[in-house]
Amino acid sequence: MGNIIKQMVSFLGGIKLTVFLLFTLFLLILFATFAQVDYGIFEANKRYFTSWFVWLNNVPIFLGGFSIGLLLIINLLLSHATKFRFKLNYLGIFCIHFGLVLLILGSAITSFFGEEMQIAVKEKSSKNYLDYPNVFELVIIDPYSNEDFDSLYIYSISELLKGINFNGVSIKVNSFYENAIINQRGIESLRYNQLGQLYKLIPLPKTYKMDERNVPGVDVDISSPDSVSKYIFWGGSDVYQDITINEKAYLIKLRSKRAYLPFSIYLDDFTKVDYMRSETAKQFISNVLLKTNDGDIPFTIEMNQPLRYSGYTFFQSSYTEDRETSVFQVVKNPSWQVPYISSLLIVIGLLIQMTGSMRRKS
Amino acid sequence: MRLILLFFIVSVQLLSVEPIEIPKESYITFKDFLNDKQQESNNSTTNLKYFPNDWIRLEATPPLLFRFQVPFVDNYGLADNAILSISQFTGNIGGELPNLNRWRSQLNLDPLDSLGENDIDYYDVKNYKVRKVVLNNSVEYMVIYWVDLVTHHYFFKVVSNQYFNSSVVFDLIESQSWETL
């Protein structure tokens, strides 16, 4: 048994595995580069890099980014444990390898815990939530019971597809379309309530283009012990539909997932500066006010000058045609310092190794 | 047994969704949406005019702009009434064949696989294309005028129990200022 473990450790820490994994990583990057032509960068990233395996027809055909990263970390750590002894001569190599491990771990933390959202704020108005433009949720809102706040019950798409039980009524999906639009009906359909009476869902092919997004639509039955009501929900609609459950009124909608902030952002002024005699943007400048519990904090967000606050980083992303609404890309990345630290460690390690080699030669 | 009950209680607690509380927001409800649509209809209907005085206006709910009871005299010289519905749609409303089959289905007629030469008549009214479809079954007679303004479309649909001379509807269409609508 001891021999088997030794052989496994030797294999997992061996240089042959390192070469194999680096070659596999090279192939993965190659396949992903070709795939992103059809699928777009986000879908290719999801299928190849932020996954354990690359799947084809539900069969894993190649190692994914997570698997290769994990094996590289194991390989690096075990090679140190089995081959290197901590001596001053090897300090440079330790720094380089530790920097590499940190870099891979940092990217794994970003994949699992990092989030990308956006917020569009109109001039002279404020907003206290971020949108996930490509993630949708079903919300049931009670805006009537309390004068001071609204109560939200939030369900993810996967929870909706499994079926929801809310205060004794069940919400069951009849059809779900990952990408859909709504179209006006020629004749009202009295089988449906509210929006479904006037509109019907039209499924569309899933889009992979970066400048388009998939907007889901769902046809549901909302069943109580006495009755069944049919509704359609579409993620692109602004309309909150009324629903009564156990004689209590709620609003219900399928919308982009939101993350509510412990503060709000007020856009005082947005300015777009163009290059002379052209409409090409030279600079976007948003003067904002962070309204927090501790008071208001003014800040100017420009290109290459993001706002970092409370774990969120707000980047100036774009604006609307009327130039009255500024759109910010918001990133929450708990390991944002890791690439800087790991790069520094690798550089220090290289310098130590280089000066050490030069001394030995002289 | 107690363990099973405890597991059940814990899992119910885990599975039930707790509400989150947020500051009051304003929401566009379905009623607001209908009111806005009605407002839009009212604004656009003021641009459709010259309805004959003997037409009786009926209640119209969106997406209908107008409904009228249109009196006429049948082939036997007897007075009868047809119902004219006027609706407006924007954007892509489908091609000729899908719309024709939609109207056919309203009269319980079988759908067509392709358009025949006589299925649709075409007219030109102030450089806008107007399509005319005439359908009937044993009990109902339907005439549809489809005014194609490219970005939006108006449908004038007349339904009666017998043959109806729809020239009065075509006169109404010709009298409108389509370039401003």
Q: Features of this protein?
A:
heterodimer, A: 362 residues, alpha+beta, 4-stranded antiparallel β-sheet, 7 helices, 18 strands, B: 181 residues, 7-stranded antiparallel β-sheet, 9 strands
Describe it for me?
The complex is a heterodimer of chains A (about 350) and B (about 180). The two termini of chain A are about 50 Å apart. The longest helix of chain A is centred in the N-terminal third of the chain and has 35 residues, at about 15-50. In chain A, α2 (about 15-50) runs antiparallel to α3, α3 runs antiparallel to α4 (about 90-115) and α4 (about 90-115) packs antiparallel against α7. Chain A has seven helices and 18 strands. Helices cover about 35% and strands about 40% of the residues of chain A. In chain A, the strands form five sheets. In chain A, strands 4, 5, 12, 13, 14 and 15 form a six-stranded antiparallel sheet that branches. A four-stranded antiparallel sheet of chain A has the order 3-18-17-16. In chain A, strands 6-7-10-11 form a four-stranded antiparallel sheet. Chain A has helices at about 1-10, 15-50, 65-85, 90-115, 155-160, 195-200, 340-360; strands at about 55, 60-65, 115-120, 125-140, 150-155, 165, 170-175, 180-185, 200-205, 215-225, 230-235, 240-245, 250-275, 280-290, 295-300, 305-310, 310-320, 325-330. Chain A is an alpha+beta fold and about 350 residues long. The mean pLDDT of chain A is about 90. Chain B is α+β, with helices and mostly antiparallel strands and about 180 residues long. In chain B, about 30% of the residues lie in helices and about 35% in strands. A seven-stranded antiparallel sheet of chain B has the order 3-4-5-9-8-7-6, with helices on both faces. In chain B, β7 (about 130-135) and β8 (about 140-150) form a beta hairpin. The radius of gyration of chain B is 25 Å and the shape is elongated. The model of chain B has no long low-confidence stretch (mean pLDDT about 85).
